[in-house]
Amino acid sequence: MASKVDAKQKDFKRAVHRSRGARRRATIVSDPYRTILFPNAVRERRLEAGIASQMELCTRLPQLAYIRLSKIERGEVFARATELWAIAGALGLDDPADLLIDIDAPGFSIEAWAGERVAASALARETGELAMLLAAAVRRLRAGQPALTLARLLEEYRLPAVTISRMENAIKPFHRWNAETIGALCALFGVPDKTGLIALLWSEFETGTLEEWLARIPGASEREARARERIAALRTELARMKKDGRTVGSQLPDAAAPSVPREGQRTSGRHLPVLGVPLGDGLIEPFPNPQHIAPPPGTGVEAYALRMCRASLGAAIPGGAVLIVDPERIPASVGLAVLREGVGLRVLALSTDREGRLIGHSSNPEKTILLDAVAPADLAMVTAVLFP
Length: 388
Known about the structure:
- It contains 13 helices and 9 strands.
- By secondary structure, the chain is an alpha+beta fold.
- Strand 5 and strand 6 form a beta hairpin.
């Protein structure tokens, strides 16, 4: 008896072939490893330590969510230096840099590292091609309609910035989008259903409408360059932490006994390490210091604490203020946001222009940045400001 997954795959393939009919199959260049952003040695070191599963390792890291740990091990997200430091401690490693991989080393192969992570089936090729077509179509639509801002996509179509980013970079296979997201896309493109959406994408491709936009989707070379840059930055940050004399495993403190809570702060419940040392041009390096704080109720599991370091937004928010930053939250039209620029972070005050585009500002130095033009994954919402 066929499984529900097999039935779903068959239904999907029938929808694709109905939409394409007997038309000639066109070739679309797609990076099959685009979901792997951060090749690492966490799995190998975990098995060497005799820890059979991610869940078992997670029990030794109470402050690191299982989903987050799983994504790190699979290379789907870039780990933070503090997370690698804690993982190394749980694995009994003396040097957290042992968890990093040199992707330029002789013998390294992303194909071998990925193993069974990327299926080579016809379905995977179909959905990979459709992911590329969807990425190109969304990019083209947004470029042709400047009023179609990230804020409007969220408000009118319930498509968060994180979802748009994953679509525009073809990170998620087409068949893995849920019914709600597919319905929102159908409304966005003005088609009645999923079959109509697939037909539209192939039609626009075969008429050449998407050719320019397909060329703009980052491919393997861009993925490798970004991984190389982030891994080098992690090596530098881990080396600084080691030079600073930090104890391996100390960067994700036990929730029941935070090592250095702020004076007057609650000493029970979850605490966050405070990050932040000043860089040039108003940027902040997310380097940890000994301070920990208790976040406000409702703070997300991915949130972190960031010291302003300088009054870059004016006297209203002093340099000693600490921001609670949640990468999973989408910045609104007002408030504060944190923008990642290379290895640094920039704090910005938010507003919108007359066309509804999201703008970020700082006063020291004076900056005005169009945030609709940046990658959503590089933008995080400030959910609280804690004054000294």
